[in-house]
Design a protein that fits this description.
single chain, about 625 residues, Penicillin-binding protein 2a (Domain 2), Beta-lactamase
């Protein structure tokens, strides 16, 4: 009996163990199934991507920037093939070691490399370390590939300016996008390492010119080095720009300024087209478009000549006697003076407890508006200013575009100052004093202008009061479609003055050149009308000009138009610290004007064909 009971107990234990074993096996199978489901179904895409990325990488292909031409199709900015070094962090096991190797091979600062590797983006995004590498550097990197995991050399197109410093302030330069720029909506489709315009038309037309990046999928080995190329989406080149400038006039303007600081602007009064806009000293955009060290950048920024300052659109100077042109229009239109009204000039204008001097110590005798402009009589215009008052002067100054930007397509244009009682109250929290009106009447005191504004002002007078916005870009051409979008001339308004007024003023300006203060601008080839100006830099000084240190000497102005009968060109010349406009600035304007009429107009370029050829030439096969 006992043995039967014992065998039953053993049988029950066996069943229980079998059940436990089965349950355990089932649980293990269930857990394995669950894990497989998790890995293959839920996390499948992630691991597929991971395994794919162990094998493939997506590499961006930078686009070629659009080309820039002058008005006759002369190439001003193009692209050249160059080597660029990238690093993909995913393939770098020892970052310090890689930094050390690259630093030794290429002579780069380790801190600079670390900064580049620390840019935004995931580990799979290639970081641009150095562009414009020499062939020697590229070969050096390729020959050490096994020691440089994650390193890749790409052939890309880099910006190039064949003319060097020519028109540098207009063209500008390009550079790698900054962290601040990446935050802006305009650059939302770009990435660390993208090249964008940083100055000039390269900046203001960047969204047209920069093009669209493409990409290629490449298969890589364990070191992240390219084995095979898979899918490619080609980059789209940027649009081409056709500027209004004539590069021959531009070069001449720059040569005429030579080593002096200053600006020359020449434009078409009937459309606002800029023929030339020179600023000295200039810079080489090829140098600035490379990766500069902070030491190089500081040297450029701290250069006392401020080469990055476009004096034509950003330099603000007292206009001196060139301001007598809008003053003369205002005098006639407000009936402050009739054309025949005379003022007796004996060399000074007493006001309050001081005497405002005329530039001619003995005075000019009895002068009317015509002779006051021809011989630049200060006393006549002191009288006009005093009778008219600052607010009427400011109203006419604003009609001529003073105290406001011209709207040219260049970044950071300055607007100068056209003072008024309201301006002084707002800017200085002070009332306007009558004595300040007298200084302002001859373009001194608070009045400041840019050379571009003065060329535009002279163009407006030449054009009988019709004012155009200065235009630097005449057309944009889409390289992909060949579509040419012309940018029209934009009229800004008309001066509130009678045709007769402009006739009187233009006759006087012609006589300024014929027999007045600007006889050095007289030409055998074409009739020129103009006005000289001398802008004071410091308070009145005594003694000969040669004894005054150059930095305290006056600035020389001359503004002109030609031919007087039917104006085709208006010019403003400003040369810093060169004394009198008649001697220093007028001869330069004459040379620009004569060259404009001498140069034969080349045939207009055949746009679509030439740019397609260019595009074919500059897309490197190795991309």
């Amino acid at each position: 009996m006992a043995s039967g009971h014992h065998s039953e107990t053993e049988f029950g234990d066996f069943h229980r163990r079998l059940f436990m074993l089965r349950a355990g096996l089932l649980l293990v199978v269930a857990l394995l199934a669950l894990r497989l489901w998790h890995l293959q179904i839920k996390e499948g895409p992630y691991y597929r991507d991971l395994s794919e990325n162990n094998r493939t990488r997506q590499v961006l292909i930078e686009p070629a920037r659009g080309l820039i031409y002058d008005r006759y199709g002369v190439l001003l900015a193009n692209n050249v093939s160059s080597f660029t070094l990238y690093v993909t962090l995913e393939d770098v096991k020892d970052r310090e070691k890689l930094v050390g190797k690259l630093s030794d091979l290429l002579g780069l600062d380790p801190e600079f490399i670390q900064k580049k590797l620390g840019g935004r983006g995931g580990k799979l995004v290639p970081r641009k370390i150095k562009d414009r590498m020499t062939l020697r550097d590229a070969v050096l990197v390729e020959s050490h590939r096994l020691d440089l995991p994650g390193v890749m050399v790409q052939v890309e197109s880099q910006r190039n300016y064949p003319g060097g410093v020519t028109a540098s302030h207009l063209l500008g330069y390009v550079g790698e996008i900054s962290a601040e720029q990446l935050e802006k909506p305009d650059f939302s489709d770009l990435h660390q390492g993208s090249i964008v315009g940083q100055y000039g038309v390269e900046k203001s037309f960047d969204r047209y010119v920069r093009g669209q990046a493409g990409y290629k999928n490449i298969e890589v080995d364990a070191h992240g080095h390219e084995k095979r190329q898979a899918v490619v989406e080609n980059p789209q080149a940027g649009a081409d720009l056709y500027l209004t400038i004539d590069v021959r006039l531009q070069k001449l303007a720059e040569e005429l300024l030579g080593n002096e600081y200053g600006a020359i602007v020449a434009l078409d009064p009937t459309s606002g087209d800029i023929f030339a806009m020179a600023s000295r000293p200039a810079f080489d955009p090829n140098v600035l478009s490379r990766e500069l060290t902070s030491k190089q950048w500081v040297e450029i920024v701290q250069d006392e000549g401020r080469p990055l300052n476009n004096r034509a659109s950003q330099g603000q100077y007292p206009p001196g006697s060139t301001f007598k042109v809008p003053m003369a229009v205002a005098a006639l239109e407000t009936k402050t003076m009739a054309p025949s009204s005379t003022v007796a000039c004996n060399g000074g204008y007493p006001f309050g407890n001081r005497v405002f001097r005329d530039w001619k110590a003995g005075g000019h005798g009895a002068v009317n508006l015509h002779s006051a402009l021809v011989h630049s009589c200060d006393v006549y215009f002191y009288t006009v200013g005093q009778r008219m008052g600052i607010d009427v002067m400011a109203e006419f100054g604003r009609q001529f575009g003073l105290g406001q930007s011209t709207g040219i397509e260049l970044p950071s244009e300055r607007s100068g100052i056209m003072p008024s009682t309201a301006w002084k109250q707002k800017a200085r929290k002070e009332q306007w004093f009558p004595g300040e009106t007298i200084s302002a009447a001859i373009g001194q005191g608070y009045v400041t202008v840019t050379p571009l504004q003065m060329a535009n002002l002279m163009g407006t007078v030449a054009n009988d009061g019709v004012n155009y916005r200065p235009r630097l870009v005449q057309a944009v051409m889409d390289r992909m479609t060949g579509n040419l979008q012309e940018l029209p001339a934009v009229p800004r308004g008309k001066i509130n003055a009678k045709p007769e007024t402009f006739h009187i003023i233009k006759k006087a300006l012609a006589d300024v050149v014929k027999e007045g203060t600007a006889t050095r601008a007289k030409s055998e080839m074409v009739t020129i009308g103009g006005k000289t100006g001398t802008a004071q830099v410091a308070a009145l000084r005594t003694g000969p000009a040669e004894s005054i240190p150059k930095k305290f000497r006056d600035h020389a102005w001359f503004i002109a138009f030609a031919p007087v009968e039917s104006p085709k060109i208006a010019v403003a010349v400003l040369v810093e610290h060169m004394g009198h406009g008649g001697s220093a600035a007028a001869p330069l304007a004459k040379e620009i004007i004569e060259a404009y009429f001498k140069f034969p107009a080349p045939p207009p370029p055949t746009l679509p064909e030439s740019s397609k050829e260019e595009q074919a030439q500059e897309t490197p096969d190795s991309l």
